[in-house]
Amino acid sequence: MTILIIGSSGKTGRRLVSLLKPSHEILIASRSGADVDGCPAVKFDWTDPDTYANPYSHPQAHKRPIKSMYLVAQPSNMRPFEDMKPVIDTARAHGVKRFVLMSSIREDQTTPGTGQVHAYLEEIGVEWAVLRPTWFMENFSELHHARTIKDESSIVTAFGDGKISFVSAEDIAAVAYRALNDEKPPNRDFVVLGPELLTHDEAAALFTEILGRQIQHIRISEEQVIQGFMKFGMKEAYARRLAEGEARASRGEFAILNEVVAQMTGRPPLTLRQFIEKNKKAWQ
Fold it and tell me: Which whole-number Å values give the CA distances from 230 to 145, 172, 236, 273, in the listed order?
């Protein structure tokens, strides 16, 4: 069978493709439709419903039909259900049996956003899994914190004293791999967490120790976070959603640990110390 990957250029998608490529047939759905590192690809665009059926006419799908799918919504899409429902319905009509959705610890089947997609998958009787990770370690190395750590020796947030269990995209991808390939359908959500609870002050202290220079956690308000995101071109509604997550974390709402990564992969999740040591060049 073939596994369809929607979101292969994202943090988890890239790593999932690397895990699947050696031993599985995969098809990458992307706006360009250009093959990636020897993996076949097909043109797909969330904003163009005419492309939703393209994967099923690709030669790869004719040779080995698509039976499972990894779904990642566009990051700034405030209403992903409106796009993802017809994609899921099209996939079901073409024989796809299993769906693995990337969501967030901030959302479950009772909330808007990908929570609605989560609820829909549970409702329609397909094989499914929903990944609900906490904050990515890669936010420090690939997104907004990367620049401030490198250029300003600072991490700027509204997390306050809130503790969270940072998780690596590598571990999320490993859980996704199992959710796509286990013989028994998961039919559940997975809150994907790292191995330890840390404040951003404690994270900054780790960066200080490992990088050999002082890294400071600068505390700002939720509104300042919103304005900062908007300054770099983010739409206000999405900026508010992200800032709200930081504010909730500051109140301790996500200070939890579990054994999901170890149970699904057979190994412990990466620690933030290990992640920083592994990626030191990102901040040099």
Answer: 15, 28, 6, 31
Whether 161 has a pLDDT exceeding 80, the answer reads yes
Q: At what angle do helices 236-250 and 222-231 cross, to 10 degrees?
A: 150
Beta bridge partners, 2, equal: 25, 66
Rounded to whole angstroms, the Cα distance separating 243 from 87 reads 29
What strand order describes the sheet that includes 98-102?
41-43, 25-30, 2-6, 66-71, 98-102, 127-131, 188-190
pLDDT band with cut points at 50, 70 and 90 for residue 36: confident
Task: Label residue 144 by pLDDT band (50, 70, 90).
Answer: confident
Nearest to 168 by CA among 69, 265, 270, 49: 270
Q: How far, in Å, CA of 86 to CA of 101, rounded?
A: 15
Q: How far apart are CA 109 and CA 22, in angstroms?
A: 34
42 three-class SS: strand
Strands 127-131 and 98-102 come out as: parallel
Count, residues in the chain: 284
